[in-house]
């Protein structure tokens, strides 16, 4: 099984190193190939997603991704900025289904901004469509306005769009995920305003007929942003488009108070996928050895489960993470009085040992 | 001073009645003219925003608005649904600047989902552009896709767009609001992905040169959704587009735990405005006399301040609301052990008496 390992920028290399350490103790026939991505790739090869990196990712069975981005690239033209690498990988690999669990670990409930009773046991799965919507819609650009409030002035524009088959395939992914969990699916849109959302809602309703056991409800995105704060535990599986999913999955992750713990998977139609922590590259703490590697380690577990058909190995990693938490080991981001503060490497070692 | 009073649907009539009661005790030369809007207007006149209502609103110095919407209109074609009234009023009156304060009252801090220390003293002002963006951008509709992932299939599309002068005018509103408060402005966009956001960010940065005393920072919308949960008190004035503002202003309102207390103003370029509570029509509790009228009463105060140049009268209302809270009077939505539960009418009476 071939894995493309793309550490990227900031804390990327530190957290990926620990995830790889954990994979190595599992003694599976894994072939790891490393490549530059993001700002690092721009520095070394003049592009955030060099062709060699994209080809490596295409040839692999799965991609293990760290994080990209650093303030020092802020002034670059958009096409050269680190985050273009992640957009390019999603598009290039056809990774249309993004799984973003928002899970509150019992030991870490206190880390949430929310009152403990509102988040204890929280377990939401946000499924975000990842290759369509206003992220990739053409046309887009700048032009002179011919109508609107100020005809004749400069304007910028983007196109939100979804085709029926794009919505259908993410709907199937979401209903199937709901079948494996609480059989409850919330589809989030803005159908009271947007044409794209109305089609989204119509197609979700149609596909629902094939999954009669699942309870489907529709929620407007503004209301979803409120319900996440008010009563997050009422949500189970949430499916939404690329733009709304970007916002809601981050809001949901932050509710748990421990975004350093949250993995993510981005899958294509054959369950080949890219796996990365939900948090970013954190350039402010890069190189200090204090980043939390658990989100990346848990992403590696998702990879074993979803793309490499190794559910047992995945379960071993997950159990090992549970056990280091139970031992009271904490990186700085999740540390609290009475627990033991450990470095990135010590945390990785502890998980490897627990396996 | 002419005020168009549009109670709308659900609890609209109950809450507007109390706001009008409060306005009446102020003994100002106000001329109130009532009209149907929303589902009520559709039932009575076949359209959610009848021309007579729009004309009344145009002729008035300000509009006091209750709320619109009810499940029973869900099956109507979009153009006849109640929420089209509010979109039509915004467009028809040129109400491009939406002020959405998210304020946490000391007496109600416990009502928040967040830990008290994170929200005590919270005072954010979200300024949302209200007549542009993907809400009104043309073209939009359904068609057969000619490119994208599934050429030949049905697709729906919308256009996000902002022109330079549209961004400039909301930037001035936001910088001026920041000058009157903490001189700190956060502009929210998604410039790492969207052309529209890049222009938004560029123009905000340009206009900033005219307000050198204000500290401006830019934040991506996904990060803003996280920061609102993580550390809301770090935000002061936030300015953003119509779509992102819809989501973030509701998220921020819900953080306070007492959305029944939060007013809003939507202003045109001459400070003529529409004033409405931040909450909705709540059809589930309509007619029960238990809705919280304070958001609407405080909206009337905003109206006196922003559109009718009556800051003293506005301050009297605000002081009266403070005083009823201090007296321990609470409608059901904000009630807690040890306080006195009152009805919609009793709350309105108490505010009127306190004045
Ligand atoms: C970096 C950025 C382009 C990206 C997105 O908006 O999708 C990120 O926020 C994410 O959610 O993975
Ligand atoms: C009813 C709806 C069209 C409206 C909006 O999206 O603007 C509402 O959510 C609001 O925020 O006032």
TrEMBL record, chains A, B:
Classification via SMART domains: Iso_dh (SM01329)
Show the InterPro entries listed in the entry.
IsoCit/isopropylmalate_DH_CS, IsoPropMal-DH-like_dom, Isopropylmalate_DH
Q: Which domain of life is it from?
A: Bacteria
Pathway in which this enzyme or protein is active:
Amino-acid biosynthesis; L-leucine biosynthesis; L-leucine from 3-methyl-2-oxobutanoate: step 3/4
Co-factor remark: Binds 1 Mg(2+) or Mn(2+) ion per subunit.
Pfam families per the UniProt record, alphabetical: Iso_dh
- Which amino acid positions bind NAD(+), per UniProt? 280-292
Tell me a Gene Ontology molecular-function term this record carries: 3-isopropylmalate dehydrogenase activity
Ordered alphabetically, the record's keywords are: Amino-acid biosynthesis, Branched-chain amino acid biosynthesis, Cytoplasm, Leucine biosynthesis, Magnesium, Manganese, Metal-binding, NAD, Oxidoreductase
Task: Name the EC number(s).
Answer: 1.1.1.85
Xref: PROSITE patterns: IDH_IMDH
Q: Which reactions fall under this protein's catalytic activity?
A: (2R,3S)-3-isopropylmalate + NAD(+) = 4-methyl-2-oxopentanoate + CO2 + NADH
Q: Where is this site: Important for catalysis?
A: 135, 190
| SUPFAM superfamilies per record | Isocitrate/Isopropylmalate dehydrogenase-like
Identify the main location.
Answer: cytoplasm
Q: Which cofactor does it need?
A: Mg(2+); Mn(2+)
Domain Isopropylmalate dehydrogenase-like span(s) in chain numbering = 2-351
Q: What does this protein do?
A: Catalyzes the oxidation of 3-carboxy-2-hydroxy-4-methylpentanoate (3-isopropylmalate) to 3-carboxy-4-methyl-2-oxopentanoate. The product decarboxylates to 4-methyl-2 oxopentanoate.
Family according to the record = Belongs to the isocitrate and isopropylmalate dehydrogenases family. LeuB type 1 subfamily.
The entry describes its oligomerization and partners as: Homodimer.
Under which name does UniProt file this protein? 3-isopropylmalate dehydrogenase
Origin species, per record, is Roseateles paludis
Q: Name the gene that codes for it.
A: leuB
